[in-house]
Amino acid sequence: MDRQRITGAEAIIRCLEAEGVTDVFGLPGGAILPLYDAWAHYEHGIRHYLTRHEQGAGHMAQGYARATGKVGVAIATSGPGATNLVTPIADAYLDSTPIVCITGQVPTHLIGTDAFQEADIQGITMPIVKHSWLVKDVRDIPRVMKEAFHIARSGRPGPVLVDIPKDIQLATFDFDYPKQVDIPGYKPSKHGHPRQVISAAEAILAAERPVFYIGGGAISANVDPAELIRVAEAVQVPVITTLMAKGVFPDSHPLCIGLPGMHGSKAANWAMNKADLLIACGARFDDRVTGKLDAFAPGAKVIHMDVDPAEIDKNRRAQIPIVGSLELIVPKLAEALSSRMNGGPPKAAEWLATVCGWKTEHPFRYRNSGPLKPELVIERLRDLTAGRDVIWTTGVGQHQMWAAQYLRIDRPRRWLTSGGLGTMGYGVPAAIGAKVGRPDATVITIDGDGCFQMTMQELATARMYGIGAIHVVVNNGWLGMVRQWQELFHDERFSETNLTVDLPDYVKLAESFGISAFRCESADEVDQAIMGALECDGPAVIDARVDHEEKVYPMVPAGASSAERLDVEWAEDDNQWVEEGV
What is the pTM of this model? Predict the structure, then answer.
């Protein structure tokens, strides 16, 4: 690229162009105004989406990144604009989502004076970013932006922050974008140690009760699902996928046992508890999966494959650690297994039959009687969209767990949810970002009424740009998951969790934005509402008014082992559903 004297603000845009960015999400303000001025007069091919809150911009960037595999970009001004990005930054950090956040800052001579809308956003976000920069010389912008995108997308992906003072945006210099990055000390491991891969293959073939435990890192690493299937089928091992890994190994595959952890299936939790070998692939032994850590998989050796060496031995000691890019390691493991197979039935065939028997005998189930059940709404969404390429997003709470239990997802990057941080309000903006990145896909939010109210203002963004995601409000009138805990563990003291189903009226709310809206209050109204939304040419909202007393089962109580649970079962003798373990 030829050298040309331009402002720092124009340089930012040129850097984005050089990185292949086509879409960004943001909200202007005083300290970032030079960038927005350059946006207006500098000819470029990047589309900006004006959000109604900076948190929405951050979550849109996340949804865009996770749906496309590209780096998402969010822009905000200084002070409160920047601090409003803290939640999506923290969310992206815990869920390994690559986003670049560009914030304005007060002029350099005012930094440290408590100037109007000054905030040390670099210091505030230090624990929740992979790296951050405060640019103090306009000539550093190209290098910093090149490094920012490289760090965000490489190794274990994650968020980075570039804070640029207003005077630096206005300063001029001779622009030249670097072709390469040289960051001393930052060299993520890629290939994994070959002897460790061989040791892993030998341990898998020797195991009698192995379990393949796949985490969200497999999606972040762009592991080819065919390679995961190749490994699993070679040795006929049961496969468990965490909440963040849903879709990277097909839910419909016979070897897929599904979701583990607090609201996971009995089969998945029992399999992990009884395993003699855990083959962890991009999983971090999160407390929502393990429950009481010292009681988790007590008899199992661990193979732990991960790109981040800090995850190895962090929560669970690994007997065979393999550090490197899973995209490269998993095919090597498949080859190592293939070269050592001697034919005949796998040693663990009886174990697989046992686990699959558990899966058949103990599916997710619910009592389909009385008021409209949220599980039914999700099942109908699933069935009526069969054959479409659907990207699902969720908020956090009961609806999130029901969606994880009842949706069948067979491809990666079709399931976007907030895992590590558990961010209410993630669903709506993430869906908008996903639809921007994948306009060809059907994008559906399954949200709770509590979550929806946190970011529903972004319906204005959806309407303004015609971003046609469908937002389903699983409306039980309560902060449902908190209510469930209050009922089960706090003697039904429902303190400050009642939202009421009519405040606001979601149909009228959507219509006030100029968005089509539908309501269903009984089972026979569900299909019509869903089909109406699917046939809309633009965004739509469904208000599904469901049973407020419905709980998410199975459930492993906090602090309990994954073998302990609360559940509902059909009692044949009494011909009724009963709660067990409560």
Answer: 0.95
Catalytic residue among 10, 54, 311, 375: 54
* Mean pLDDT of all residues in 270-283: 96
- List the catalytic residue out of 70, 130, 166, 551: 166
Average pLDDT, integer, range 236-252: 97
Q: What confidence tier does 575 reach under pLDDT thresholds 50, 70, 90?
A: very low
- The verdict on whether 166 is a catalytic residue reads yes
Check 117, 122, 236, 319 and give the catalytic one: 117
- Report which residue type is found at 432: I
Q: Which domains does the chain have, with CATH numbers?
A: 4-175 (3.40.50.970), 194-361 (3.40.50.1220), 374-545 (3.40.50.970)
Average pLDDT, integer, range 420-429? 97
Q: In what order do the strands lie in the sheet with 320-323?
A: 256-258, 239-241, 210-214, 277-281, 301-306, 320-323
Candidate list 1, 4, 116, 489, residue with the active-site label: 116
Q: How far is CA 263 from the centre of its chain?
A: 17
Write the DSSP string, 7-53.
EHHHHHHHHHHHTT--EEEE---GGGHHHHHHHHHS----EEEE-SS
In the structure encoding, which two tokens stand for residue 238, read together? 């049961």
Q: Encoding tokens for residue 445? A: 């939010």
54 labelled catalytic? yes
HEC string of 375-411?
Answer: HHHHHHHHHHCCCCCEEEEECCCHHHHHHHHHCCCCC
Mean pLDDT, the chain, rounded, equals 94
Give the pLDDT confidence score for residue 4 in this predicted structure.
76
Q: Which of 272, 305, 456, 481 is catalytic?
A: 481
Q: What is the pLDDT of residues 490-521, one digit of tens each?
A: 999 999 999 999 999 999 999 999 999 999 99
Q: HSE, CB side, 13 Å, CA atoms: give it for residue 298.
A: 6
> How far apart (Å, rounded) are the C-alpha atoms in residues 490 and 174?
65
Respond yes or no: is residue 117 known to be catalytic: yes
Beta-carbon count within 10 A of 468 CB: 18
- For 357-372, how does the pLDDT look when each residue is reduced to its tens digit (9 = 90+)? 999 999 999 999 999 9
Task: Please report, to the nearest 10 degrees, the dihedral formed by the alpha carbons of residues 89, 95, 97, 101 taken in order.
Answer: 0
Compute the average pLDDT of residues 324-337.
Answer: 96
CA dihedral defined by 378, 454, 467, 47, rounded to 10 degrees? -140
